[in-house]
Amino acid sequence: MIPATAENVPANTPFNQTMPTATQLAAYAANGYTFDYRDSYTQYQRVDGHYSGSTDMIMRWAACKYGINEDVVRAQGWIESGWQQGGAGDERTTQAQCVQGSFTALWNTTISEPGGSTVSCPNCCYQSWSLWQTKIYYEWMTWPEIMQSTAFAADYRYADQRACMDGAYTSYYASSGQQPNTYAADIANYEGNPNTTNMDRVLWGCIGMHYSGSWYDSGAQTYISAAQNAMLTQPWPH
How high is the pLDDT of residue 183? Predict the structure, then answer.
């Protein structure tokens, strides 16, 4: 149902044509979908990355799948990576910041990407990957498909967005490290009366959470403002 459009980020083409294997998806499920506890894994269980097309088509597909405004998807991708699926960020230079339990794939290595590109980080790592810069140091169960496949990267980011908007982070935000916050109240208001004000409060709070891990803290608010400005100005390729 998404009209075909020409690719306006040619470097993404090999990533856009890559879909996760059955083995990768089985490992993603077996390792629990997420690093932190969620009250519901329903949205994460829907993630399969089984779509291919231009960069913008993939964004529209993920937006449709999870009920998110497609310009929100475009704007967040723009401020995170400039729409570069092969981008890597958040360089860290200590092993403790790069290795999560038995997950060592990011540390002190050269990583091969679709299309023949490589990302090398001697005695260091890049914690964040994909067009939406998901932090793989935490969400290691998505590796390597989140780096290899634009569709999987979009699928996972907006499954997490929808899970957040559905209230799946209630226990997370009830933890002592997240107090005080208004996540539970904001979710209750949204569920009780999903008008534009209540929906936008939850929508943007969950966008900011992707950056800061907290609910409307100062880092999240700065990030939200950047995403909203990108959504208004639309600086991405058209």
Answer: 97
Exposure b/e, 55-91, CB count within 10 A at least 16 = b: bbbbbbbbbebbebeebbbbbbbbbbbebbbbbbeee
d(C-alpha 121, C-alpha 229), whole Å? 32
Torsion of CA 11, 12, 15, 17, to 10 degrees: -110
Whether omega before 144 lies within 30 degrees of 0, making that bond cis, reads: yes
- Ranges of residues in the chain with a pLDDT under 50 are none
Provide the strand spans (E) within 35-162.
88-92, 109-112, 118-121, 125-129, 134-135
Measure the CA–CA gap between 74 and 57, rounded to whole angstroms: 11
pTM for the model: 0.97
Percentage of the chain modeled with pLDDT above 70: 100
Identify the bridge partners of residue 88 per DSSP, sorted by sequence position.
Answer: 129
Q: Which pLDDT tens digit goes with each residue over 73-87? A: 999 999 999 999 999
Burial 107-132 (b: 16+ CB within 10 A, else e): bebebebbeeeebebeebbbbbbbbb
Two structure tokens written together for 145? 């498909």
